[in-house]
């Protein structure tokens, strides 16, 4: 410990300079290099939950708010390449790229995708309100990106829903055709049986179909099959009607999905860089402390000064006969005079004897 303290106090200016100057220099460089950025925000009001026609997934309890569902849907779309490239192309974000990146299609698309997917944020504010934020060094580009995100979100949401609805209708139509065929076949078999057994028809007229089934099990089976086939056909027709109503309710635009409350705007002044510069200064301070620590370790490991008898034992195996204290330039004349005086006294004592 004494070695460490001696190393520190022998070079205080050098160590303090490294700890103080490196963070200050890093913050100054960051201030000059990090460009000013401008934030753009739009506020949207969710008119309903984001739903896909025909989605039968179980909803959690309590169910999510309309804003939460639309935030989740838009956040998922922002992680898709086609959506991000459409937003970037409409907003002119490519002008922010350097010439080498713009001329390489793959690099250009990768850069645009990374920019949109990582820097456009969607946040739910309450049950119906959510916001879209984006920051860019060009204020007009920031505004155009947010506007493009809103437009493409509405277009793709309606497109996805309509495509899913049309697919469901096509599937239901195929099922309805098969169900109608089965119902016609079951009804025909029932009618043929009744034509071949007039007494069953009389029982139906007197006591009704339900009681007539009690007297003839075979007719009961045919009647049950015919009723089930008709029920299946009616269920499919009901599902088709529900799907058609959902498609009509969603319409061909996003006007009933959300409403833009605050259009994308651009701040007059750039966003503050205090937080970012503080992070740069903190990182530089950590590096400076680490460098000081390594510097002290190197100096301590390279110090061969003897401080205790144990240090001498580590160098030589000879026993210690005498230890001399640390003497300064002022102490040497006094020690020399005292030694001469002690020598003269010893000589007089011998002569007297």
Write the layout of secondary structure elements.
Blueprint: H1 2-10, H2 12-33, E1 38-46, H3 66-77, H4 81-91, H5 99-103, H6 105-119, E2 121-124, E3 129-136, H7 139-196, H8 198-207, H9 209-215, H10 217-250, E4 258-266, H11 274-302, H12 309-315, H13 331-352
Antiparallel strand pairs: 1-3, 1-4, 2-3
Helix pairs in contact: 1-11, 2-11, 4-6, 4-7, 7-10, 8-9, 9-10
InterPro entries: Bact_polysacc_biosynth/exp
Organism: Ktedonosporobacter rubrisoli
Protein name: Polysaccharide chain length determinant N-terminal domain-containing protein
Question: Care to describe what's here?
Answer:
The structure is a single chain. The chain is an alpha+beta fold and 353 residues long. It has 3 domains: 26-165 and 257-278, Bacterial polysaccharide co-polymerase-like (2-Layer Sandwich); 177-250, no CATH class; 283-352, no CATH class. Helices cover 68% and strands 8% of the residues. The protein contains 13 helices and 4 strands. The protein has helices at 2-10, 12-33, 66-77, 81-91, 99-103, 105-119, 139-196, 198-207, 209-215, 217-250, 274-302, 309-315, 331-352; strands at 38-46, 121-124, 129-136, 258-266. Strands 2-3-1-4 form a 4-stranded antiparallel beta sheet. α4 crosses α6, α4 (81-91) crosses α7 (139-196) and α7 (139-196) packs antiparallel against α10. The radius of gyration is 45 Å and the shape is elongated. The protein starts with a helix and ends with a helix. The model is unreliable at 344-353 (pLDDT under 50). GO terms for molecular function: protein tyrosine kinase activity. Keywords: Membrane, Transmembrane, Transmembrane helix.
